[in-house]
């Protein structure tokens, strides 16, 4: 009886240790306070650094983080706006994203600060993939151009324009860019320009467009949600993760 009880307790302990842990993480970057979220499956697992879209770190990013947890990946959802700042009005979203588009050094510092906090939480610095949606996608490309050490960079319907004076000569890992062909916010001209720049810089990359998909095509419940493009892009993302990391 005692041996059976001990065995049952061991199974319960192992199962409990495999459950993801979720916690809000308050941290500072250059003296300003931010609040990200850490979703850990287990120590030592590869980590995805997730950059939010223009309404800040909300339920959408949390849902994606939990989806990644189910696949076996730890996730740190970075905060790019500041603790408690989750803009709801369009003008507020434009204000916060616009300020960072004008201050690229700050945007780089915020992405680097997010990476450093993820490592402080327990992320393995040798096994990190950086990904983002919409504005977060632009932040991912900014981090890539800055030479952030990572195993890969991934954007979903992200901003693709390259600021004047910047290039991709310092990129440390492959890029996966997934875009909606019907996106009028980020055009196919932007897409083609990025492809040319990456090719010129000799950066390993894959760029995919999905016919009929508009901007924000992955946002569940949104008016522009495109199920086929969402499922295909998520499947390709999983393949990319498997190729550049080891679970």
Query: Helicity, in percent?
Result: 40-55%
Based on helices, strands and strand pairing, what is the structural class?
alpha/beta
Terminal Cα span: 37 Å
Q: What strand line-up does the widest sheet have?
A: 1-2-4-3-5-6-7-8
Morphology? globular
Defining key terms:
single chain, 247 residues, alpha/beta, Rossmann fold
How is this structure best summarized?
The chain is α/β, with parallel strands linked by helices. The chain has one domain: Alpha/Beta hydrolase fold, catalytic domain (Rossmann fold), CATH 3.40.50.
What would you say this structure looks like, in words?
With 247 residues, the protein is an alpha/beta fold. The protein has a single domain, classed as Alpha/Beta hydrolase fold, catalytic domain (Rossmann fold, 3-Layer(aba) Sandwich). Helix content is 42%, strand content 21%. It is built from seven helices and eight strands. The protein has helices spanning 2-18, 59-70, 90-102, 104-121, 135-145, 188-201, 227-244; strands spanning 21-29, 32-40, 47-51, 74-78, 128-133, 152-156, 175-180, 205-210. Strands 1-2-4-3-5-6-7-8 form an eight-stranded mixed beta sheet, with helices on both faces. Strand 1 (21-29) and strand 2 form a beta hairpin. Helix 4 crosses helix 5 (135-145). The two termini are 37 Å apart.
